[in-house]
Structures are given as structure tokens and as C-alpha cells.
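Weekly puzzle thread! Below is a chain. First person to post its structure in C-alpha cell form gets bragging rights.
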Amino acid sequence: RAVWDYICRFCVMRPFINRVKAHTSRGIFSFPINLHTINQFFGLKLNPAEAKEFIAAKGDRTIQQPKNFEEQALQIVGRELYQTFLYGYTKKQWGCEPRELSADALKRLPVRFNYNDTYYDTAYQGIPDEGYTSIITKLLDHPNIELKLQCAWQPMMSSEFIRIFYTGTVDSFYGLCFGRLGYRTVYWNRASYHGDYQGNAVINYPEIGPAYTRVHEHKHFAPWESHEKTLVLTEFSKETGPEDVPYYPKRLPADLEIFEKYRALAELDPKITFLGRLGTYRYLNMDAVIAQAIRVAREYLKR
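Winning reply:
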């Protein structure tokens, strides 16, 4: 609630619930996996208790201590649901076999034994009526804030500040002295059409066949608006090059070894605080990042 109240100081939030669908060779399904998905996929009419028992039987019971994403998924949902909804999407998004990823990565993808088909299982959800750019503009509209654009961080700047809060990539802050961390980035193919293209804001393509991961139709993010035409963005994932904007920290074992070196170096400098996905090298949703920023700011101001 604290995050919601804070962000609403800078915008009017319109009610919006993200309900993602998954387009597969077997049909179009509700996602994340829920009771509707299970019944539709297997052609059943299970109630919650029956579905729990059914999926438990599908799980790979030979896996006692899952060591990676694939083993965790096979243990929880079994091979059929894993291959259809998780394997291909994960491989396309992260550019590696799911068995190379941590088992913890699956925690972001719930399995629900009810008909809750919301993508985010949080109490407060919405879309800012004027968009996110307006929020950032209002956040920066303060006499004590000086904004400089096209100004990359340089180590020599450190002497200019009493305290540094850095939200860029931690490896670039230290000049890649221990090597480059792995990040994935995304890019989009943009197209416009008349009418309604797919009938939903987001449709995932979780199988290996299509090279893209998902398709966004932006008019469905703002259902209170009316448009004759529609904007569609098809999303692709790739490795982050030197000129790309990093989106997702990969956190493979080799990456985490490098990150620990950067983290240890950061602990030697009490002047610097790293924040956000890139600074802390963690997969964080927007609400978690805002909460982190509020907490760090309050702690600093108490000093």
C-alpha cells in the first residue's frame, strides 16, 4: 500500500489487470498456469482439490532436490505443461537452456489451483492515465534536482558528490574490471493495423517455433480509450551488446561469481549505494524497486 500511495502522488492510476494468454500449437490458454489452464489443456473438469492431486501426480517424483529451473518445473508441473508453457519461452527469453538457470527463477511463475488468471498476484494494480513518462517528469520537477542528459558516469565524477545512488549496471560503474555481467535485452518489431489485432494486451508465444516471445497490443492497456487503429509490438530477446540497453540480469553461475567480486568492491566504498535491477543485479518488479528506493532514501535521511 505504501508504494501505491507514493506513486499516486504523481499520477492518476486507472484500473487495469494484466491477463496474459499463451498461444500454443494446442490452442490459446490462460496464463500463468491456473485451474482453467489445467482443465482446458487436459480436457478435464477438475475442482481445486482434484487438480492439485492431478498435477502432483504429473510431477517428476524422482527429483527430490531441484538443482535448476528445468528440474524445479518438472517436479512441480510435469513434462507436458513444462514443454508447452515454460521450456520454449524460457529458452528464448534467456538465451540458454532452462537447466542452466537457477531453480529460484521459477518462483516468478505461480501455479494456481483456482480461476485467478491475473498475471500479477498483488492487491494494487493499475496503469497511469498519462503514462510513465509523466510520472518521471513530475518526480524530477524539484528545485533540488538537476538533470543532465547524455552524460555517462565517469569515475572522476565521484569527488563531486557526498553520496552516490547508482541505478546503472554495477559492472560498468567499475569499468568492467572483473569482466562483463550477463544481461538480456529486448527489441520490438512495430506494426499498425485497423481494428483489433489480437483481442488482448499481451499474448505469449511459449513454444520454440516463433522466434519472438510475446506480442503486445497497446490499445488493450488503456481500455478506457477508443481507437480505430491499433499498435502492435512483437517482442524478441537477445544478448545485451555494448550499445544495447540491458533489461534482465541473467544470473548464471559464472555471472554470480563475477557479481560477488563487484559486490565486495562496492562494500569497500561507503559513499556508493547501488539500486534497482541493474545496480543490484537482481530480477525486480517495478513495485519492489520503488519500495527499495523509498526504504534506502528514508534510511539515508535519518543519518
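Puzzle host: Confirmed. Bonus trivia for everyone else. The radius of gyration is 22 Å.
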